[in-house]
Amino acid sequence: MFNSLSGAYHVEGACHVDPILIGKADFGFVSKYKKGATVPEGNTQFKFKTAYLKLDSTSYKWLVVNKAGMNAQFFGQGTINGGLAPNNEEYKFMIWVTDGNPDTLRIKIWWENNSVENIVYDNDMEQPIGGETIQVHAK
Length: 139
Description:
mainly beta
């Protein structure tokens, strides 16, 4: 399980719709497996106000936490600004986090057309966050 109440970090060139946009992104998420579950549950929200981009998760597919409880990665689907991708399906997203010094986050959002990824947003590497902290819990 990992979670973050909220946080913000600076992004440059991450918004593939308009790569010259610069600003802060806000996020909040919780992802965990309930006892006996094979699919994690939770909620993710990501906002990059400069681009008027708001991702809201609708479902998760998987979550991986390393044994040391420092790193986690999860994959899910959702909508952007309440709508579907151009292929009339939900957007896909993947998040990588590190609970360290500093805490870091990478997020990639895309949609697929004939197995070709159309990137909407990707900060391309885990970047230090500001504000709140990321907490990763391994059992």
